[in-house]
Write a structure and sequence with these properties.
It contains eleven helices and 15 strands. It has 359 residues and is α/β, with parallel strands linked by helices. The C terminus is likely disordered. Belongs to the NAD(P)-dependent epimerase/dehydratase family. GDP-mannose 4,6-dehydratase subfamily.
Length: 359
């Protein structure tokens, strides 16, 4: 039985990856940061809430309290587990927030990666342990070519992108310096019903559900013209695993090869709740109107603009498709939006039932 260690296991990708590896017969270990509130909702299909308050030590799945910024802690955990594979998914991953918290973003996204690589090195596990580093399309930032592939020059446009660029290069450096199986998966935007509620896609699908159920009147967004390559997180974790099963350590772009605007995402999300959007005006005055009622349901708010914007990201997944046999469009863009909206319609509806029940 292979052993895998996942940092960021409570996140969107971490929870899907844990489920995927358990189905593959792995013994899975996850690192979670101690919090004063319950933060393991995405793992509820694996654990019960009562069990998760203690460190779990069953045959297949275990949680360990830790933090990638604590080098001693990470070294101890890796030493105890002796994992065959490490998936470093821990990050401060909100691009807009990274402008407000640049130092913290650096500590987690850059130094955290170094701590894992160095732990594997000093523990003498370089021949045993494979390391997957979750890299990002934000490395490309001010894109130098379209589409972006494994050889496209980087030009990050946020503290998040800059910190992740260190993580990318230090992973590559340790691979070349110490002959480690350490690789980067350059993931383009990937979403799901488990996406954090502050991320733009989830913000849109939640708002569509709330507006359809008369719990919210207007959705406020930043740049509606931003172009992104959006895929389904559940499909992307399979590619992470495939990268570590490849016969040699290589870096891969993980993307769909399709690009859509935020505006398109909004239109599709609202269409799934039977609201057709009509756009009026331009720039910061642009508004989305419910075509049937004439009500304004979408507005542009400049406070959501980034200090430096990334206008378009489009990945070229040819290498992953060719060498790994991965299907980047297993779930289409339209299906992804529908999955998210359907889940959020249920969520908002259930919230109302719970209020009624407890009243």
């Amino acid at each position: 039985m292979k052993k895998a260690l996942i940092t960021g296991v409570t996140g969107q990708d971490g929870s899907y990856l844990a489920e995927f590896l358990l189905e593959k017969g792995y013994e899975v270990h996850g690192i979670v940061r101690r919090s004063s509130s319950y933060n393991q909702e995405r793992l509820e299909d694996i654990l019960s809430q009562e069990e998760s308050e203690a460190l779990l030590n069953n045959n297949d799945f275990s949680l360990h309290y830790g933090d990638v910024t604590d080098a001693l802690n990470i070294t101890r955990i890796i030493s105890e587990i002796q994992p065959d594979e490490i998936y470093n998914l821990a990050a401060q991953s909100h691009v807009r927030v990274s402008f407000d918290m640049p130092s913290y973003t650096l500590d987690v996204d850059a130094k955290g990666t170094l701590n894992i690589l160095e732990a594997v090195r000093i523990l003498g596990l370089t021949e045993k342990t494979k390391i997957y580093q979750a890299s990002t399309s934000e490395l490309f930032g001010k894109v130098q070519e379209v589409p972006q592939n494994e050889t496209t020059p980087f030009y990050p446009r946020s503290p998040y992108g800059v910190a992740k660029m260190y993580g990318y290069w230090i992973t590559k450096n340790y691979r070349e310096s110490y002959h480690m199986f350490a690789v980067n998966g350059i993931l383009f935007n990937h979403e799901s019903e488990r996406r954090g509620e502050t991320f733009v896609t989830r913000k849109i699908t939640l708002a569509a559900a709330r507006i359809a159920q008369r719990k919210q009147s207007v959705l406020k967004l930043g740049n509606l013209n931003s172009l992104r390559d959006w895929g389904y997180a559940k499909d992307y974790v399979e590619c992470m695993w495939l990268i570590l099963q490849h016969h040699k350590p290589e870096d891969f772009v993980i993307a769909t090869g399709e690009m859509h605007t935020v505006r398109e995402f909004v239109e599709l999300a609202f269409k799934h709740v039977d609201i057709n959007i009509e756009w009026i005006s331009e720039g910061i005055e642009e508004k989305g109107i419910n075509k049937l009622t004439g009500e304004v349901v979408v507005e542009v708010d400049p406070k959501y603009f980034r200090p430096t914007e990334v206008d378009q990201l489009l990945g070229d997944p040819t290498k992953a498709k060719t060498l790994l046999g991965w299907n980047p469009t297993k779930t289409s863009f339209e299906e992804l939006v529908k999955i998210m909206v359907t889940k959020d319609m249920e969520k908002i509806s259930n919230e109302e039932r719970n209020v009624i029940m407890f009243d």
